[in-house]
Amino acid sequence: MVHLMEDEVFMAFSTYSLIVILKLMIMAPITAHYRFSRGAFANEEDVGHRRTEEKKKMLRTHPDVERVRRCHLNDLENVIPFVLVGFFYALSGPELSVALLHFRLFAGSRICHTIVYLAAVRQPCRFLAFVVGVAVTLSMTYNVLSKVLVL
Fold first, then answer.
1. Nearest to 55 by CA among 44, 64, 65
2. Spatial distance between the Cα atoms of 110 and 112, rounded to a whole number of angstroms
3. Mean pLDDT of successive 10-residue segments in the chain (151 residues)?
4. What are phi and psi of 41, to 5 degrees?
5. DSSP label at residue 59
6. How far is CA 90 from its chain centroid?
7. Which of 31, 101, 120, 141 is least surrounded by Cβ atoms within 10 Å, i.e. has the fewest?
8. pLDDT in tens, 9-51
9. What angle do CA 74, 80, 17 make, to 5 degrees?
10. How far is 106 from 51, CA to CA, in rounded Å?
């Protein structure tokens, strides 16, 4: 493990993985903020000891809360594969400059994706940010499989 942390590619992978994982984790408090500020809760226990009529008003969906939840779900669907594939990619011995390009593009695309999703920027902005991230993960997958494919 000590030797891995001395490898520049692995250190870069660790850095950018932690950045996108932190971004993913920040989505939960953002969701909570939207729930409280919009008064839209999913579970009865979340509304406390209010009267029944008041609870019914608060147990609802809100478009803003749903937007944040979908953004968070999209992060889960993309960050986890990036971290898993990126781990094997970092171990496959890529050039540092190429690896940094992959890692930076992915991190940038996920940050852009979140900004344009939450700000409700018109398409194709969100689509392009999504596609860049997926393309990076697929490129790393191809690179690893081309080096280690054993059937």
1. 44
2. 5
3. 82 98 97 93 83 81 96 98 98 97 98 98 97 98 90 58
4. -120, 155
5. B
6. 19
7. 120
8. 999 999 999 999 999 999 999 999 999 999 899 888 888 777 8
9. 110
10. 47
**Angle formed by the axes of helices 96-118 and 125-148, nearest 10°:** 150
Pick from 26, 46, 44: nearest CA to 35: 46
* Nearest to 4, CA basis, from 80, 87, 82, 81: 87
Residues β-bridged to residue 59? 41
pTM, rounded to two decimals: 0.91
How far lies 115's CA from each of 22, 71, 138, in Å? 15, 10, 23
Let me know: does 103 contact 83? Beta carbons within 8 Å. no
C-alpha 4, offset from chain centre: 24
The per-type count for the chain, helices as H runs and strands as E runs, is 5, 0
Give the list of residues 6+ apart from residue 133 with CB closer than 8 angstroms, or none. 78, 82, 105, 106, 109, 110, 113
Which tokens is 92 given?
């496959």
Residue for token digits 């940038």? 108
